[in-house]
Structure to design on (287 residues):
């Protein structure tokens, strides 16, 4: 008799079982292979799957073919006609590539109002708050990878945003800002399990992302300083000139000569009480 045990959580298997097994570790499947397999299954099952939708499903599968097929089945059963990337976003309740990039653009511009309005619109459309926070964290991670390894980082991106959009966003943030944003997003996502209002937590997270001055911890201060250093290094800043006082117009000056300033000779004579008295000889020794 031969037992075959399969698990994705090997650390939960007791050591007594592991010591009696021949272990085979499988690597994650690449998104390209998952997308190709999903296209093959869709063709066999008469599902009209768009190439963009296949890439989105492959990214969400995170290296697991079983998860990719489950997501494909879920979206295909809720969609009539062609299964596009936008319909995948609607079925799974996630924001999508362009929306996530636009949210980070508001954060880069420190536009709190725009970020909250976009979040409120997505929340009204029924988007999952946890999924939106996870997408923002993944995009920040991609930007950090591009910041560290500009050339090799393209192959390590999660696919939350397009390559061109990620390259456009990477220059808007410093490394210190990205580290702080990733930590804040992960902290917010971890608190959803015990939170009474996920919407409130997400809104506070967006406010802190847009306005680092709201927090005075070390990471917030480091993010603000690193942003200034990045602007000074690249020269990407604008110095606002102060408004100077308007100069007097020579024509507005009176042509009449002003009277001369008062002189000591013009002063009235001092009274006797104000006149200094001379000290008699021998006054100070006697005193």
């Amino acid at each position: 008799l031969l037992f075959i045990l399969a698990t994705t959580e090997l650390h939960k298997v007791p050591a007594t079982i592991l010591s009696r097994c021949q272990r085979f570790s499988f690597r994650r499947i690449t998104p390209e292979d998952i997308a190709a397999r999903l296209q093959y299954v869709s063709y066999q099952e008469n599902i009209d799957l768009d190439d963009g939708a296949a890439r989105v499903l492959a990214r969400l599968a995170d290296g697991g073919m079983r998860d990719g097929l489950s997501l494909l089945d879920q979206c295909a059963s809720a969609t009539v006609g062609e299964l596009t990337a936008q319909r995948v976003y609607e079925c799974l309740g996630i924001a999508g590539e362009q929306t996530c990039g636009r949210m980070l653009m508001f954060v880069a511009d420190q536009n709190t109002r725009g970020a909250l309005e976009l979040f409120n619109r997505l929340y009204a459309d029924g988007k999952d708050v946890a999924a939106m926070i996870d997408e923002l964290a993944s995009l920040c991670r991609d930007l950090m990878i591009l910041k560290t390894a500009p050339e090799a980082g393209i192959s390590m991106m999660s696919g939350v945003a397009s390559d061109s959009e990620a390259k456009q966003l990477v220059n808007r943030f410093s490394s210190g800002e990205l580290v702080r944003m990733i930590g804040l997003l992960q902290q917010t996502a971890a608190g959803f399990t015990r939170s009474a209002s996920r919407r409130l937590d997400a809104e506070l997270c967006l406010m802190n992302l847009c306005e680092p001055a709201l927090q005075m911890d070390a990471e917030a201060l480091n993010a603000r300083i690193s942003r200034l250093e990045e602007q000074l290094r690249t020269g990407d800043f604008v110095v606002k000139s102060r408004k100077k006082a308007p100069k007097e117009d020579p024509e507005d000056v009176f042509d009449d000569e002003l009277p001369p300033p008062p002189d000591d000779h013009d002063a009235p004579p001092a009274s006797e009480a104000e006149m200094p008295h001379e000290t008699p000889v021998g006054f100070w020794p006697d005193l």
Summary: The longest helix spans residues 129-148. The CA atoms of residues 29 and 64 lie 6 Å apart. The two ends are 128 Å apart (CA to CA).
